[in-house]
Sequence to fold (168 residues):
Amino acid sequence: MSATPSQTVGPFFRLGLCVRPNEELVEPGTPGAVRIRGLVLDGAGTPVPDAMVEIWQADADGEYRGEFGWGRSGTDDDGAFRFVTVKPGPVDGQAPHLVVLVFARGLLKPVLTRMYFPEEVEANAVDPVLSGIADEGLRATLVAEADGDGLRFDVRLQGDRQTAFFAL
Fold:
């Protein structure tokens, strides 16, 4: 007889992924579709194979709509996650960005960060949240990198080059 979830200590991210995975906010061939890939890494730089990453975003016009803007991806054995979406339009004077939540073992609550787009140099420079981070190296952890046909955004939970996180 195996233990049930109520008899063991979680987290049980796979349950949330079975109920409602949503890695593709738009079809891959949609005009303006952007592929986002990344890794979730622990403090030693080791991939986290059982994390869950959520994104929240406005649409291409900078509007939040109930039927669009939320995605969820589990990490694979290599700690990799992926999304297909569109670049959001600017909202309230902020540069286009994704809100990113990472759920992982060892965390009592998810960690909150943002992903900014590398081609938005001018908008990123005046974004009130991004420009509010004094440390240039820490600020750089929030800007994705061009990677072939898409973008790469790695999340480092601790250690060298730790991603900037915000209070929930």
